[in-house]
């Protein structure tokens, strides 16, 4: 017989204590500790396995072939499509477009599977809205299909009952924090409930080879709400990012058991829905044809995808204490670049207001953007615009050297495709680069060389 010990578990965060206390020591909630019996350290008896182990060479992998979702940018992030039986968790801030994206995916998948035949319908379960509210949004974005089933449920048992009755080929749950299981104590969204709901959905997905898309809430710190074990249980974790004042949305794969985690999908959110952007280059470059001081174009790598970005800098006379304001770039790297420019090139900015921003709401923290930011700052201070058609990328060290960055060849090819004619690149590794038609490659070993090559 297994020895049973008594412990008390917090219904909010899962913290355990050997004795009851009034306040949880982890989340500081009052009256949330409940008694929970847990088995002692006992070795279970051996049981007969459900199926015998077979050599890996004899395992049939045909059941793990990907199926396109109908949304190209989502397929790019997932690695080419969704794997049958995979559980995908999509998290993001309120209003970023999670529900809109998955409703569009559900409608496209329902239409594709109805045309192909042989596959079941798509089941969309909402726990946050009523069925009529979801129908209204679906009509607005054009996501209505007769093979798309809609159910508003908050009970896990009822959701599994819908799955048994309809045998869907794809299940979308919006959201996992709104469901609760009657077999587990605690309110919806609690640690115990989220863990139980996720375990039940994952077990059903694996047994039926049915892909499941889950919507996840985030905390005020940007982390996924609920227990950390939720991210370990699911197969794919995607983060949906975007500024509410910009239509651009980026989808990143934080975890992917079936593909790479360095792919980024681009979407544009509008009143009529959300659309993928296979080529978002025009969103991050200014449309002016004038040579304006304080600007410099660069190509950053978001995963394996080259993204052209324009960096703008403005140095102005202060009306009070000098300010350092950034938007879309890492503020700490801007402060470091100002110190390097002051020390190595005698570019004085301590008595100026410094503003550094990107165009189109792009966000980048890649070190390879350092050179473009430095050239934009020098250009603004000297009043000289960079030579027309110039693009620059490279990491700047504290000694003023321009250090090598990854994916230089891909950056050059993207710059040439966009019509740039000059590229200032790190001298380290430049001898191994292949020539790109229409692009003059200018290696630079330090900041002084880069400034001379970029500015007239």
Give structural notes.
With 456 residues, this protein is α/β, with parallel strands linked by helices. The chain has 3 domains: 4-39; 66-278, Rossmann fold; 282-454, 2-Layer Sandwich (Ribosomal Protein S5, domain 2), CATH 3.30.230. 25% of the residues lie in helices and 25% in strands. The chain is built from 10 helices and 21 strands. It has helices at residues 72-78, 98-116, 131-141, 156-166, 191-208, 229-233, 331-344, 370-382, 408-417, 447-454; strands spanning 4-10, 16-17, 33-39, 87-92, 122-126, 148-152, 170-174, 212-216, 236-241, 248-256, 264-270, 273-276, 295-302, 305-316, 324-327, 353-358, 390-392, 395-396, 402-403, 422-426, 440-444. A 9-stranded mixed beta sheet has the order 6-5-7-8-4-9-10-11-12, with helices on both faces. It has a 4-stranded mixed beta sheet with strand order 13-14-16-15. The protein has a 3-stranded antiparallel beta sheet with strand order 2-1-3, with no helix packed on it. Strand 1 and strand 2 (16-17) form a beta hairpin. It starts with a strand and ends with a helix. The model has no long low-confidence stretch (mean pLDDT 88).
Write the layout of secondary structure elements.
Blueprint: E1 4-10, E2 16-17, E3 33-39, H1 72-78, E4 87-92, H2 98-116, E5 122-126, H3 131-141, E6 148-152, H4 156-166, E7 170-174, H5 191-208, E8 212-216, H6 229-233, E9 236-241, E10 248-256, E11 264-270, E12 273-276, E13 295-302, E14 305-316, E15 324-327, H7 331-344, E16 353-358, H8 370-382, E17 390-392, E18 395-396, E19 402-403, H9 408-417, E20 422-426, E21 440-444, H10 447-454
Parallel strand pairs: 4-8, 4-9, 5-6, 5-7, 7-8, 15-16, 17-20, 20-21
Antiparallel strand pairs: 1-2, 1-3, 9-10, 10-11, 11-12, 13-14, 14-16, 18-19
Motif (RadA KNRFG motif): 255-259
Domain RecA family profile: 63-218
Family: Belongs to the RecA family. RadA subfamily.
